């Protein structure tokens, strides 16, 4: 037993345990549009649109206001305070009997999701060592993809209420585990709680680390906090320094690429898209394959991100997605506009989407969270982190609302080509603008940003 404890200590298990309760995807809603809707009311297409998009609107609001709890109670308790209301929302959704109640509850769950997605990477960035920081932040997309897979695999075979109960157990489990884990040593030291910060570091570091090493880490944290000064925050100050502006610019661009890379919209309307392609593979099987294909790359990314770096992974991901989305658009154009018989390649739409679902998590899906967890200076972190997440949530909401109307008016191929162009832009951004943060401390990252020619 002693040897087992020493092994866990050496692998810094507290840092891994602190981030293994990731965010899970929301269930799909096809059952609500059927004639035997589980809530007793068949939803119209407009109601479906709002049920699907209301969490994204709430997500934007939650991200925008996340700086308030983050500054007052810190990252750990911000995450805890947002987790249990999500469980309540899922339970409410299970027993709701109207579209209005569904929309409101999903909006509220989106608010909590916005807080979690904004604060989570910041917490991970502050509790993780720099050599495993990127790996740990990728736990968010890993668990998000796993949740999506479970919902797609289990959802069709269980009752509506059962599916919602399963979703409700996840935030409860998260809170049960997370309440016992250490708080951010940065937040504790920033709050004048030096002794608690030292105890937190001792729990996060391996058991064989001596007091000298812990004191050195505390001095590094103090230097990081002190280097940003004691300015009273305001919006003007947040844009007053070059490295502040560049950090915001980078985070906004990674979120732009994530949103207009199309994943959120494609997951929401996947069965509708596949159903309109005359694919030889059924929409249900296609969506399950789509979810399964996302699991290996997110796990692979966790092992590669701190070895090969952020730039390479984002470049590979964006180029691969741009190609697959472009081909998907060509298929829709030839089928619906040119009216060419494509029965010989009816498998192509599903194949392109599956390859896309493999390529997207490698960089596009993972990098925004990693960047937010690393790029912001301590002085503006609590306020600035919500900006890219709010921007992302707003983009996702608008895409969810307008995807089908635009596709019906201009053609599905247009939306796929738009997504492809943004992915190609992401490759250019990754190669020529994005700084490499692999293995760098927070101070070193800020120094890199200060030396950049951008902003």
UniProtKB/TrEMBL annotation:
Protein's cellular compartments: Cell membrane
Molecular function terms, GO-annotated: transmembrane transporter activity
GO cellular component term, pick one: plasma membrane
InterPro entries tied to this protein: MFS_dom (IPR020846), MFS_sugar_transport-like (IPR005828), MFS_trans_sf (IPR036259), MFS_Trehalose_Transporter (IPR050549), Sugar_transporter_CS (IPR005829)
Gene3D superfamilies reported in the protein's UniProt record: MFS general substrate transporter like domains (1.20.1250.20)
Keywords (A to Z) from UniProt: Cell membrane, Membrane, Sugar transport, Transmembrane, Transmembrane helix, Transport
Name the UniProt record assigns to this protein: Major facilitator superfamily (MFS) profile domain-containing protein
Organism: Photinus pyralis (Common eastern firefly)
Lineage: Eukaryota, Metazoa, Ecdysozoa, Arthropoda, Hexapoda
């Amino acid at each position: 037993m002693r040897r087992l404890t020493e092994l866990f200590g050496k692998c810094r298990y507290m840092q891994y345990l602190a981030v293994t309760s990731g965010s899970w995807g929301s269930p799909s809603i096809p059952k609500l549009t059927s004639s035997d809707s589980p809530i007793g009311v068949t939803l119209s297409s407009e109601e479906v649109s709002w049920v699907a998009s209301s969490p994204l609107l709430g997500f934007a609001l939650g991200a925008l206001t996340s700086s308030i709890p983050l500054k007052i109670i810190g990252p750990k308790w911000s995450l805890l305070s947002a987790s249990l209301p999500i469980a309540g929302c899922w339970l409410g959704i299970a027993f709701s009997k109207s579209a209005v109640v569904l929309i409101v509850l999903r909006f509220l769950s989106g608010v909590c999701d916005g807080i979690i997605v904004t604060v989570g990477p910041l917490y991970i960035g502050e509790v993780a060592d720099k050599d495993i920081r990127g790996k740990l932040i990728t736990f968010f997309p890993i668990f998000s993809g796993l949740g999506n897979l479970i919902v797609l695999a289990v959802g069709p075979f269980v009752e509506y209420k059962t599916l919602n109960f399963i979703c409700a157990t996840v935030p409860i489990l998260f809170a049960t585990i997370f309440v016992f884990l250490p708080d951010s040593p940065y937040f504790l030291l920033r709050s004048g709680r030096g002794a608690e910060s030292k105890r937190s570091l001792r729990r996060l570091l391996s058991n064989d680390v001596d007091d000298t090493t812990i004191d050195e880490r505390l001095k590094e944290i103090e230097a990081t906090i002190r280097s940003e000064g004691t300015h009273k925050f305001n919006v003007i100050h947040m844009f007053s320094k070059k490295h502040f502006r560049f950090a915001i610019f980078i985070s906004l661009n990674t979120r732009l690429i994530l949103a207009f890379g199309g994943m959120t919209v494609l997951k929401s309307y996947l069965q509708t898209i596949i159903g309109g392609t005359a694919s030889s593979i059924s929409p249900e099987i296609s969506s399950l394959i789509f979810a399964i294909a996302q699991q290996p790359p997110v796990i692979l990314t966790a092992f590669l991100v701190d070895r090969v770096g952020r730039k390479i992974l984002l470049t590979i991901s964006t180029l691969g997605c741009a190609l697959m989305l472009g081909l998907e658009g060509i298929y829709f154009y030839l089928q619906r506009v040119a009216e060419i018989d494509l029965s010989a390649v009816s498998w192509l739409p599903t194949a392109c989407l599956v390859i896309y679902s493999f390529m997207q998590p490698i960089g596009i899906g993972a990098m925004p969270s990693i960047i937010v967890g690393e790029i912001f200076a301590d002085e503006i972190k609590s306020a600035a982190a919500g900006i890219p997440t709010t921007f992302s949530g707003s983009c996702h909401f608008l895409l969810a609302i307008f995807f089908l109307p635009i596709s019906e008016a201009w053609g599905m191929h247009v939306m796929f080509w738009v997504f492809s162009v943004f992915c190609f832009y992401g490759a250019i951004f990754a190669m020529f603008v994005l700084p490499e943060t692999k293995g760098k401390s927070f101070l070193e990252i800020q120094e890199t940003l200060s030396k950049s020619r951008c902003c």
